[in-house]
Structure to design on (177 residues):
């Protein structure tokens, strides 16, 4: 399976012109932010953070760090410090974060297991990893001529379980968060 090529740097206008109107009831960012706050998970590492949407939804001064491979995505105001980096080799110490989020981004990686393993390495005991993939059945970015993704909703639970173990993995779908 091939990764879906990120074009944030090569075609920034595609993302700059994104119409947020499709977010009728929000998306997973709001649900994950609520869950982070409810569970008091701190600090938060947002891998593939883009413009910092997750950090902007957390309460003011909530410890949040964004990481993205795209310099275009990291430009401009952010809700906290940001680092340009590789999701499979993150520049942080083991056990540094209460939550690691990888929302709508693991399908861009050739080997998402490496990024999931990095997330596990960075979590404190009792920390939570949040991942949100697209579905190959309904997401236009994955269904309109792209090859199968290395991380989609159909395969994501198995990939995460292969790193975290099935007994410590909870799969939530839809609005279950």
């Amino acid at each position: 399976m091939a990764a879906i090529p990120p074009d944030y740097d090569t075609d920034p206008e595609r993302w700059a012109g994104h119409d947020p109107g499709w977010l009728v009831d929000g998306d997973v960012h709001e649900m994950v932010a609520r869950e982070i706050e409810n569970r008091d998970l701190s600090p938060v590492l947002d891998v593939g953070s883009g413009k910092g949407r997750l950090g902007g939804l957390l309460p003011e001064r909530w410890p949040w760090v964004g990481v993205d491979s795209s310099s275009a995505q990291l430009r401009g105001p952010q809700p906290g410090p940001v680092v340009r980096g590789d999701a499979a080799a993150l520049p942080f110490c083991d056990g540094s974060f209460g939550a690691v989020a990888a929302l709508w981004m693991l399908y861009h990686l050739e080997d998402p297991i490496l990024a999931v393993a990095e997330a596990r390495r960075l979590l404190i005991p009792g920390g939570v990893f949040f991942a949100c993939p697209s579905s190959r059945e309904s997401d236009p970015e994955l269904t309109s001529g792209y090859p199968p993704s290395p991380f989609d909703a159909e395969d994501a639970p198995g990939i995460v379980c292969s790193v975290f173990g099935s007994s410590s993995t909870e799969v939530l779908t839809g609005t279950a968060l």
The chain has one domain: 26-164.
